[in-house]
Specification:
This protein is an alpha/beta fold. The protein contains 17 helices and 14 strands.
Length: 435
């Protein structure tokens, strides 16, 4: 299999490794002009533009009265989904909710002896829009993304949540999307996709009220639209192609590791799957398993392209150097496929999510374990983190200084203001000193 082998001897090889992977960086700027035109058109023409774009790209006979699903349609979708699938979705939702409940921060206040009270008020945003990809022809909807985006917003206390997803050629959504929305108690679902859906959420139209935060994955047009709208609305993150790094000491079953690498390679030709190990024999065994397994995958062609371009077996002189490689890559998903992963965890500085040991494959995090699967990519785990309840709440500082506080510190505050040439600031405080 054309999956490159890389010998990493030490820090001197770091730049070459990073330079190779930089080729995966999101090419969203190549469509910026087109997406900006879509944003401007929707802002100016509202629903009319939404209908025109949807007719052109999704459903030829689309009409404005089909933009929003009725409550009956949302509730009725659950009848079209097998009961066992709904039960699995409900159980996954419970696990995701339980995890995110632990993230909720409370407002706090602290008093000082002079009567001053300082604090922080934590409140949810008013309204959130969630983008849910419909998959190929609407046949493979990303319902897990709906769970992972909606539940943190609900735990945050957001009162209004709107879901958008591109319609199929018949103008309908795959029943799994409205059925999952119904399971979560979401009553606002729109048949809208691509950059015009993001524009509708950001600017608002007659049929789609504007939101404060937009979250959810999408294609290059969705990603570019979100990036261009930063500052107008909040967004979750600018996500790139999926990636996995597996740190192996040779103790894991090679078949398992190959399956884990392929779980990301099947996503997208730009996905990256990398094994890092000091055990050259283990790398060879995993390579052999990749060749055997990829031939049996329905998405084998995509996985093969991904592995050929962005897959690698990185062999290091020892485990310490292997950990250095991992931290340098700052991967979205990191599997510690080690006999004892816990000591190594304390040395991991940069990763979106860490999967511990031989029985924690990456897909358990994608769907069911509970932690969020919306994670930083392209090395951004160096400074960012998983989607959380925090993305849907905001913090307001509370300042209630007392008369004695101003009397004691007013002159110092005025002096600081004058150092910056802001005389009115100084006089604002000094006027209280004349009481």
């Amino acid at each position: 299999m054309p999956c490159r082998e890389i010998t990493y001897a030490g820090p001197q090889d770091r730049d070459a490794l990073r330079s190779w992977l930089r080729g995966r960086e999101n090419p969203g700027d190549s469509v910026d002009a087109l997406v900006q035109d879509i944003l401007d058109t929707v802002r100016q023409r509202g629903d009319e533009a939404l209908v025109e774009y949807t007719r052109r790209f999704d459903c030829p006979d689309f009409a404005v009265d089909r933009l929003r699903l009725s409550q009956d349609a949302i509730a009725g979708a659950a009848d079209q989904v097998p009961a066992q699938d709904l039960a699995i979705l409900a159980e996954a939702a419970d696990r995701i909710r339980a995890f995110h409940e632990r993230q909720r921060e409370n407002s706090w206040f602290a008093s000082e002896p002079d009567g001053t009270i300082l604090g922080q008020m934590v409140v949810p945003v008013d309204r959130v829009g969630l983008y849910v990809p419909g998959g190929q022809g609407g046949q493979t909807p990303l319902v897990s993304s709906l769970l992972m985006n909606a539940i943190p917003a609900q735990v945050a206390g957001v009162p209004q949540i709107a879901v958008v997803s591109p319609p199929r050629p018949d103008g309908a959504l795959n029943p799994l999307i409205p059925a999952t929305a119904h399971l979560l108690g979401i009553t606002e679902v729109y048949c809208l996709g691509s950059a015009w859906a993001v524009a509708a959420l950001a600017f608002g139209t007659a049929s789609v009220p504007a939101v404060d935060v937009i979250a959810g994955p999408g294609n290059i047009f969705v990603t570019a639209a979100k990036r261009l709208l930063v500052g107008r609305v909040g967004i979750d993150m600018i996500a790139g192609p999926s990636e996995i790094v597996i740190l192996s000491d040779g103790s894991a079953d090679p078949a398992w590791l190959a399956a884990d690498l392929l779980s990301q390679a099947e996503h997208d030709p730009l996905a990256s799957s990398i094994l890092v190990t000091p055990d050259k024999a283990a790398a060879a065994a995993v390579r052999a398993e990749l060749e055997a397994q990829i031939a049996r995958l329905p998405r084998g062609e995509i996985a093969a392209k991904s592995l050929a371009d962005w897959g690698a077996m990185v062999v290091t002189p020892d485990l310490d150097t292997a950990i250095e490689v991992v931290n340098s890559l700052a991967p979205e998903h990191l599997e510690l496929a080690l006999a004892d992963p816990w000591p190594a965890l304390t040395r991991i500085r940069h990763a979106g999510a860490v999967f511990m040991g031989h029985h924690s494959p990456e897909p358990v995090g994608d769907y069911f374990a509970g932690p969020n699967h919306v994670l930083p990519t392209l090395g951004t785990a160096r400074f960012s983190q998983a989607l959380s309840v925090e993305n849907f709440r905001k913090k307001t500082s509370i300042i209630a200084t007392s008369r004695s506080f101003v009397a004691e510190h007013g002159a110092k505050i005025a002096r600081l203001a004058r150092l910056e040439g802001l005389e009115a600031h100084a006089r604002s405080v000094e006027s209280r000193l004349k009481e």
